[in-house]
Specification:
There is one protein chain. This protein has 60 residues and is mostly helical. The chain has a domain at 1-25. Helix content is 52%, strand content 0%. It contains three helices and no strands. It has helices spanning 5-10, 16-23, 33-49. 12% of the residues are buried.
């Protein structure tokens, strides 16, 4: 997923602004695709590094 995120955004397969709005509904929408893509990448990177044994809340 992370390796292809930039290409998926370029091909408009993923809307990073919409995805960030789903992940962080209380935060103001990102004004640029680049900023939203960077945030998604950071979110996915943190999720990838998280241990499978760690409890994750249903909300952020």
């Amino acid at each position: 997923m992370m390796a292809n995120l930039r290409k998926d955004v370029a091909l408009q397969l993923v809307d990073p602004i919409l995805e960030c709005a789903k992940l962080y509904p209380e935060q103001a929408p990102y004004p640029t695709v680049q900023g939203a893509t960077a945030t998604l990448y950071a979110h996915y990177d943190a999720a990838r590094k998280r241990s499978a044994g760690v409890s994750v809340p249903d909300f952020f």
